[in-house]
Amino acid sequence: MKISSLATTAFLAAAVLLAGGVAADECGAAAAAMDSNLNLPASLAIACLKSVPFDQEQALNVTGEIRKYLSFYSAGTYFQHQVCPELDLPTVDINGTLSTIEKNIKAGTYTSAYDVNKDLFELFGSVKDGHVKFLPMCVAGAFFFIHKYPLLQVAKTPDSIPTTHVVELANVAGSLVPRAGRQVLAINGIDPTAYLENMARSHPEGDWIDPDARFNELLVSFTSGQWVQGLFASRTYYEENPIQLTLEGGNNVTVEWSARFFNNRADAASNPVPFNDNKSFYSSMCVRSGDELAAVTSLDPSGPPTQNKKPALAKRDLEAELGVLEKRAGLQGALSDGTIAYYQLDNKTVVLMVMAFTPASESTDQLKYMSAFSRFAASFIESAKAAGMERLIIDLSGNGGGYLALGHNLARQLFPKSDKPFFGSNMRWNPVLDGWMTLGDPSIVDQTFFALNQLKKQDGSDWKSFREMLGPIHRDDGYFTQISISNEQADNAAAQGAIYSDYSLTQPFKTENVVVVSPGTCGSTCAVFGESMQALGVKTIAVGGRPRVGPMQGVGGIKGSQVLKFDDVAMYSAAFLSPAILAAHPELQPLQPYPMRLRTLGSTINFRNSWRRDGQFLPIEFLYTPAEYRIFYSVGMFPNISVLHEAAREVAWGGAKDVSGGPYTPVMGLDGSKFQWPKGSGGVSGHGTIKGKNWNSLGELIWEKMRGGR
Fold it and tell me: Helices 94-107 and 113-125, interaxial angle, to 10°?
């Protein structure tokens, strides 16, 4: 029901009074206004967020710790240059911007904690990488913001230009499913595509480095097993900018935003909101307790590393069911949680839908899931071949990643004899990372994924020492470790033999009979898997993106090979660098990261860059790799995703027309070799120099880093 402006004003006025007529502060008003589903007007939520006072000392502590964590960020130096123009991103000087924020803190420019934390949130958001997030709860986490006009773009046919529509939910065979409603002619008076492209370029919540993947992220999509509204209609970060839609027929609609408390609980009575005024909001939502901070450094470092997946934020579901498939005869099956499934499209073609490399429930046992996933994949291959299937469509739509070992494993199962998958990676060198491995107690380090036997040289031989592997290498405007490959046997040993590893079978499908379908929103472990498929010669069909004929990447990021939480970094530092070690090496003390008191919905950095075997001029994240084919979503694909698979089949093997525009050569070349680094940036092509231009020893480099050098 739409509330009139007069009624809204009356409601808001009433909401600032508590029982007994006592005036409430901003967060008290927000708590009092929540309904049973924890919904409230957006204006009250944002007023509560902005009520947190500015504390200069605390703000400087936050920026100081962030700078330590950013020293582990593997890709930061690349954003200072236009290494890949197709990504449509401005250059970002991360350290320089952080210094500007610190300068403004000291100058008293900020008037609330919200303002300074918003700038930090936007700094991390500027790199458009789902592995690189800083989401203070009291900026982008305590509430998320929604409205009732999610959008999608659909075309009449897969090879025609789509138009923008609001989403309607239709009842199909008892299931609510999304479909295209009225066409949107303008957003805030401009062409809807122009509005959305600008949002994809500038909105700080974008997770994908590729512009077409970011465009798709704004719209309704099927992601990790559920329909999601897209960033146009559902965000953790609220911008107080009005939105007006002009719909076909001349109707103008002013979008009304609402907010929802972050955990999306349905029954506020049995799960009471943990605050009733500004003070309790701050203590419960904005900062962590001493016990929580102590728990971080007491964690067991030998436990499983953070999963390679896009960080989960507040739930943004449409109240709609998948309705993916028509009832079909023949081959079909699914893992119990639906994260991987298959069905028979025709008498020659089978579709494997890999929606995640991680369980749907966070409570699922890691080893049991890894065993179930890998054995399900093996069972699928066996069943498909027994049924006479010759062609395979792998649908990676909305796959945000998961366990890296499962991405490696699935690639190996499909191509068991090939040596072409190359899982190369390196780390950003810094003195603390060096200290972890060279000074840390081997009995602790060797029980973690930092153990030297977890990595091999690019030729498959063993590293002789941490010193050999660590370098550092001076290249790409920074210092890095050597490029290594994963020791897949060690991966499986770390999983205690849970992962299926019988690669002795013959290749189940000919390479030319396999295609990957993706809207670009394939990240982290999914990107590693997609990259391995491309290296093997498997063709890719990109779907959606900006409505124009031209190239699009099938894998639009997140392309780093490992993510770490800030708390992971603090935990490893506490475990590896004991007080005795720090006392013996005082140069490391000011660089040692500690858990942050500021509470965040997510705070992460990409820890390892991914590399191809050949060239190695730039990490994969900064290489533009156009898909061989491209199609748009057509009307029939909502809600029946099998129509998408039929269109993919016709493009791949039936000679159907696509919209890729033909072969495309990236500005910097497919391998990035045409980009010229500025003088003094270090070596190139994977080698670099062990001795940097301005330092003659490791100790000298450490002091350079302490003084703020790159």
Answer: 170
